[in-house]
Design brief:
Length: 206
């Protein structure tokens, strides 16, 4: 049985190192729909250590990143707005999310090393075992960190990664498991252009 791990590439060289998601909140006028800036808005954490203030009143703000707590599955922020002569506003916004670790990237958002491990385990259970794990796609064939973290602590499944070989492989076909590994781990680059050309020739020759 084979399990293939195909992953889209990321835009930044350090995308594999991000450990948190930072949604960006922007302010817009409900009347005009246009972006606005406020200097009477305070944004503070709810139930965070010291209820930390993210934005203090008196600071002009039009957009702000809202950090999520990695050890929880929800984070709340209090938005307080007051302006002389007008009724103030005080509201709490809560974000619920999956707190699984190891974001592949801030841009890609949802691909985690941990989640890839779970998919491998799920397929191994459904298929009755795994003979080979194949890494491909932008991240799979180019990011040794991803392959290392996915295969880490998987010896109980017969997966033993050769870290020295893995560290040297980028965008080339290679076996990156140890000779003693019961499950072969390989890297095979994708070649979409060749596949498209091959399929086109098949259609033209019919």
């Amino acid at each position: 049985m084979a399990v293939a791990v195909a992953m889209a590439g990321c835009n930044t060289s350090g995308c594999l190192d991000n450990q948190s998601a930072l949604p960006k909140a922007a302010l817009y006028s409900s009347a005009t729909g246009s972006a606005i800036s406020l200097n009477n808005l305070e944004i503070s954490g709810v139930d965070a250590p010291g209820d930390s203030v993210l934005v203090e009143a008196g600071t002009a703000v039009s957009e702000v990143y809202l950090p999520m707590r990695a050890t929880k599955q929800s984070t709340s922020w209090r938005f307080s707005y007051a302006q002389e002569g007008l009724e103030g506003m005080d509201d709490i916004v809560t974000f619920d999310y999956d707190s699984e670790p190891y974001f592949a990237s801030a841009e890609c958002g949802a691909m985690y090393y941990y989640r890839i491990k779970k998919y491998i385990g799920a397929y191994a259970a459904a298929l009755g075992g795994v003979d080979i794990i194949l890494f491909t796609g932008g991240v799979g064939e180019n990011q040794m960190e991803c392959r290392r973290e996915v295969c880490k602590d998987m010896e109980y499944m017969g997966i033993e990664l050769d870290n020295d070989i893995n560290a040297k492989v980028r965008g080339e076909e290679a076996i990156i498991s140890t000779p003693a590994s019961k499950v072969k781990v390989v890297v095979i680059p994708t070649d979409e252009e060749l596949l498209i050309a091959s399929d086109t020739m098949d259609i033209l020759n019919k």
